[in-house]
Design brief:
The complex is a heterodimer of chains A (303) and B (151). Chain A is 35% helix and 15% strand. With 303 residues, chain A is α/β, with parallel strands linked by helices. The radius of gyration of chain A is 19 Å and the shape is globular. In chain B, strands 2-3-1-4-5 form a five-stranded antiparallel beta sheet, with helices on one face. A four-stranded antiparallel beta sheet of chain B has the order 6-7-8-9, with no helix packed on it. Classes of the chains: A alpha/beta (303), B mainly beta (151).
């Protein structure tokens, strides 16, 4: 019998995504502290990501489950040269679910083929991070009261930002309007624009967004990494164009919320934090509920 | 003056693969493991083709390929034609057809794909057949025609 793993956001149908969001809402109200009694979840982090790992571990703990795992492959058999396949097959014997983060793309998909338990992808290289998308959607639904007809501004690194790519794909069935704001070098790649065209989703591209903020329901900020620019002077000149400051929010809609997949460096100024529109820390909290939903769903404990 | 033509000898029974781009002849030979079989193999390359410029042709005696074996060559020779020969007669002629998915024949061009670090078989979905574009089942990146590297 095939395990229901979550490797890519596209593994879930729209109905399943909506179901996960419903479950997240229910877990937020009632964590169900005995749902995972007797269950062991392994967190295999082949590259560090403290926040994601803690979020998953919190989700498991809140449901009464136990955790085993590692967050530093240097002290595990991986450094002895064991194949990923062997590691996964062996760990499958020790747990009921594998949560995995790995630097190589496709690693989680492969793990789901060789594991005898479900696998949840906590990030495979620059490829997928489906639970991030789910918590982003949960945050949108919670703050806007709906998923349909939302004006979403996506700002910063649209070329390499996997959370951006994943979120726009997952939101496309809900008739959104996207506004993509970035430096020309970091524009959304054509393949995603083609995708949006094929779904009849409206989008606009901009190089700055100050005047447009009143239109936004959601502003999704992402970090512009220095490493993406070969010309550092260009980076220095333009990085401030994509920084959100409190003064920019005066004419924003009262219901507008600012999201960020974190870590936030300087793209959201500290003076925004005390503005009620700053939602990024609550967004991270929503990650626990979304992950509770995913874990209980893939284990077949919730339908 | 009569034009002198290079002829590749006819075979009695077997398979003739025609319209292979000359540059790709040896890749086709490798994909089909023709460098390892026992039956006689004849081939010609840089032959004139009215349609395609320079072509190559392979004739394999006493060998008939299964669909799933032969269709792999559509990866690099999408215009190739198969002729099944019995008793010196062409009994069947058909173009190669790229299957919907490809296992194990070529590499993923993404250096960060797990398939390039782990001992495992590659797997692709064919997203375009001419020119060929393969989407890696694992990392999702598309390897296009120029970057196809046969394993």
């Amino acid at each position: 019998m095939e395990n229901k793993s979550l490797i890519s956001i596209t593994d879930f149908s729209t109905e399943e995504i909506l179901r996960i969001l419903e479950l997240a809402e229910s877990f937020e109200k009632n964590p169900e502290p005995h749902l995972l009694d007797g269950k062991v979840v392994s967190t295999l982090f082949f590259e560090p990501s403290t926040r994601t790992r803690l979020s998953f571990e919190s989700a498991v703990n809140r449901m009464g489950g136990r955790i085993i795992g590692f967050s530093d492959p240097n002290i595990s058999s991986v450094s002895k040269g064991e194949t990923l396949k062997d590691t996964i097959r062996i760990v499958s014997n020790y747990c009921d679910l594998i949560v995995m983060r790995h630097p190589l793309e496709g690693s989680s998909r492969y793990a789901s083929e060789v594991a005898t338990v479900p696998v949840v992808n906590a990030g495979d290289g620059a490829n997928q991070h489906p639970t991030q998308t789910l918590l982003d959607m949960y945050s949108i639904k919670k703050t806007q009261g709906r998923l349909d007809n939302i004006n979403i501004f996506m700002v910063g690194d649209l070329k390499y930002g996997r959370t951006v790519h994943s979120l726009l794909q997952a939101m496309s069935p809900f008739n959104p309007t996207f506004h993509f704001v970035s430096h020309p070098k970091l524009r959304l790649p054509d393949e995603y624009k083609t995708f949006l065209d094929s779904k009849g989703v409206k989008y606009y591209e901009h190089e700055q967004f100050n005047d447009l903020i009143p239109e936004a329901d959601i502003i999704y900020m992402t970090r512009v990494q220095r490493e993406r620019f070969s010309d550092l002077m260009e980076y220095e000149k333009t990085k401030d164009a994509y920084v959100l400051r409190n003064a920019m929010l005066d004419n924003a809609k009262p219901t507008m919320k600012i999201l960020h997949p974190l870590p936030r460096i300087n793209e959201i100024n500290q003076d925004v934090d005390s503005n009620p529109k700053a939602y990024y820390f609550e967004q991270a909290r929503n990650g626990v509920f979304a992950r509770q939903a995913v874990i209980s769903y893939v284990l077949g404990l919730k339908k | 003056m009569e034009k002198k033509e290079l002829k590749v000898n006819a075979i009695k029974d077997g398979t003739v693969i025609d319209h292979i781009p000359s540059n790709d002849l040896f890749k086709v030979i490798r994909i089909l493991n023709l460098d390892k079989i026992d039956s006689p193999v004849t081939f010609g390359t840089n032959l004139d083709s009215k349609k395609f410029g320079k072509k190559a042709i392979i004739k394999v005696s006493d060998k008939f390929f299964m669909d799933n074996e032969i269709n792999k060559i559509a990866l690099i020779a999408p215009e190739a034609n198969l002729n099944i020969i019995r008793n010196y007669e062409v009994v069947e002629k058909r173009p190669v057809k790229l299957p919907a998915s490809i296992k194990g024949i070529c590499k993923c061009m993404n250096p960060k794909c797990i398939t390039n670090s782990e001992p495992m078989t590659t797997k692709f979905d064919v997203v375009d057949s001419n020119p060929v574009a393969l989407k890696c089942f694992y990392c999702g990146k598309v390897t296009d025609h120029e970057h196809i590297e046969i394993i």
